[in-house]
Fold this protein.
Amino acid sequence: MNYGRELLKGNTDSLLLCLISREPTYGYQIVKQLQKRSNGYFQFKEGTLYPALHRLERDDLITGKWQILPSGQQRRYYYITERGKQVLAKRLATWQDFSTAVKAVIQPETT
Amino acid sequence: MSNISHYLHRFKASLKIDHTIRDGVAQELYAHLEDKSRELEEKGLSKEEATKIAVQSLGSPELIAEQIYETHAQGSWKEAIFSALPHLLVALLFTSYYWRNVIYASIILALTVAIAIYGWHLGKPIWFFPWLGYYFMPVVVSAVLLLSLPAGWGWIAAVIYIPLVLFVFIHIMRQTARRDWLYASLMLAPMLVTFAWFSSLGRGNELLASDWAARLQTNALWIVISFVALAAATVAFIRLKPRRYKIISLLIPPLVVLFAVITASGGNICSWSWLLLLFALSAFAIPLWMQAKAYE
């Protein structure tokens, strides 16, 4: 079992919500943003993003809208919903608490 | 066929959900592949190389289809209970002599017809298919009863009526199976259970003998169990996410019906009835066969 992959799998929804909460965005841009912001740490099969986006949309955390660009190309932009904002705020708070607790445990004791 | 078209074709062929959702996701994947290919071409790759890498980066289209299916295929508890309701109503008819009461039977028949028409106008949601199965039941029974009309009239009526019914039935079956053959199974299930019981209650050519109603009542408990099993399988079908579990849930009712028929009759079934019974129950295995064929 790849521990890093398991961690990513468990936190994909929060990462996606976080990116979408900053600005409405679409699938390919999300992939690019994830790779750029993590300095290439998050590597995954790009297609797995779409089931995750549809799961978030089904749970009413984000909503997708088709937009036609001036070039004529169609893209589906995702927007965070009010419910999505609330869920993200809770998850970020939990993550901060968890991260602080893990750091406190793994750091050597200073006496 | 280009790499992208081939990829999207495989994706669409693997995804058995409402075609508007399927086409929407395919369009998203297409936009993604276009963006990625354009970017790679700008870096100096040839068009063919760029699309090949873009397709590889997305991963298996069958896997994406499976995950999208699991997201959209799970119905709510409300939908699950509403889908199981017609089976429970029929079970209720047999819990007493309700099925012989014209008023109760007419209310349930009218309710079934009204809900089936309502579901059709709503765009055939998942809960609609079991109701459609019951909607067809009186139509099929009418075709059988026409044959018993006096002196030749039955055959004349049957020659006009049966092909018409068959035409409409096959048309709807094809439409449903094109969306998802599992929905066609959901629609056929009540008819198959009813047919299985009818065939097992008859003795050779005495299928419509005068005492069939009495035989029906004698076996009422087992008939109720069969329809309750069908209701439970329908709830499981709607609520389960993976497609293979949905298929397994559809295989439970025929096993329950087979057990119920054998127990109720004490194994005293003529060979002709056995044949009809096994024919009806084996039809439940069609989705399993179709699924296996799809993976070949």
Chain B touches chain A through 22 residues (CB under 8 Å). Residues 74 and 239 of chain B are 5 Å apart (CA to CA). The two ends of chain B are 21 Å apart (CA to CA).
